[in-house]
Amino acid sequence: MKNSVIRRIGKYIYYYLKRKISFYSSTRAFNRRYKNYKNELFKINIDDNIIKKYREKWSKFGEKVEIDTLMLSYNLSSKLDYNIVPENLFAAIIEKELNPYKELSFFSLKNMYEKWFNNKAVFPKSYLHKIDGVFYDSDFKIIRNIDNIIEDTDFDFPIIVKPSKDSYGGAGVSKINSKIELKNKISEYQHLVCQELITQNEYLSKINNSSVNSVRSCLYRDSSGSFKVLNNSMRFGINGGLDNETSGGIVCNIHDNGKLNIYAVDKYANKFYEHPNSLIRFDSVQVPFYEELNNITVDISNQIPLCNLVSLDMCLDNDNNWRCLEMNLSGQTIRFAQYAGKGFFGKYTEEVIKRTTRKFS
Fold first, then answer.
1. CA angle, 349 as apex, 346 and 350 as ends, to 5°?
2. Cβ(213)–Cβ(223) under 8 Å?
3. Backbone angles phi, psi at 319, to 5 degrees
4. What is the CA radius of gyration of the chain?
């Protein structure tokens, strides 16, 4: 009995210290990024009672509640929402509590998408895989001589080659135009996937055609056990670049009716009311087949066990089918919705707070 109590105390102390370190690291990381934002975005121009109420709401985690995220979201959108999640709390505690299982790393390996999910056509068609230095064909049969397979395979060039593990923000993604290029590229990574290049919907191409304009769909598994869509945001490349925010792209939140928000933002919260290249106003855009987007993302997410929060990168192809490019189960961002003035978890906020503070009560 005594040893059992000691173990429980030791486990609690370990967990407490680990959480403290994570919170401190997350706070420092966001403070570093915030230094690149305009100072006026953090100007406190709301009543002290509002700030007090906001801090009371988020103090249940036992940490000092910063208001930088609240003020940044408010000053960008002119919308006050107590459900705006402090970014450091989300990164240090909430996401880790919602997705605590290390087994989820299986789904971070992009090679597995077609193998695991029941609707393979949702994902880009793969030609070959490389996992831990071993080559496999699209059916996951080991390839003994990769050069011979490349020569014998009828690729529909251009194709995409990208690292399939531990890659973020579009890093390492290459468009390949020949078999010679492919042979040279596949030696660069221990984990990679070679797959079709998806041609995007014609309507969306008019806004930006330098890259696929993907939609970041964020979903949460609520108390019913099924996933629900939290929010969607569309990403655009500018000046010929990729649509990833970290690669210089911009992001525009999507309203529940499928219309784009009046403005998009870049990595440092600079606002754009129209696409810098096409000059199309964002609030004039209606995302096509929006209900279908929500239906397919729910279907994909419900096939991921041990997971309660997921962010999917979706795109609409030229046959008007929504396709899933990538899934994110850790290191997810809440900025896209919140910089449009919407609390990331919306109507599920209180449920999430209760669910992720059980260890602190």
1. 140
2. no
3. -100, 10
4. 22
- Model pTM above 0.90: yes
d(CA 170, CA 247): 7
- pLDDT (tens digit per residue) in 143-192: 999 999 999 999 999 999 999 987 666 678 899 999 999 999 999 999 99
Which domains, and CATH codes, for the chain? 2-98 (no CATH), 102-108+200-329 (3.30.470), 125-196 (3.30.1490)
Task: For residues 304 and 310, give the distance between their C-alpha atoms in angstroms, rounded to a whole number.
Answer: 9
Which parts of the chain fold into alpha helices (H)? 2-34, 48-58, 68-77, 87-89, 95-98, 113-116, 146-152, 179-185, 202-207, 290-301, 335-338, 349-356
- Return the percent helix, strand and coil in the chain, to nearest 5: 40, 20, 40
Are 307 and 327 spatial neighbours (Cβ–Cβ below 8 Å)? Answer: no
Q: Which alpha helices (DSSP H) does 192-268 contain, by range?
A: 202-207
Q: Which two three-digit tokens encode residue 342? A: 């919407």
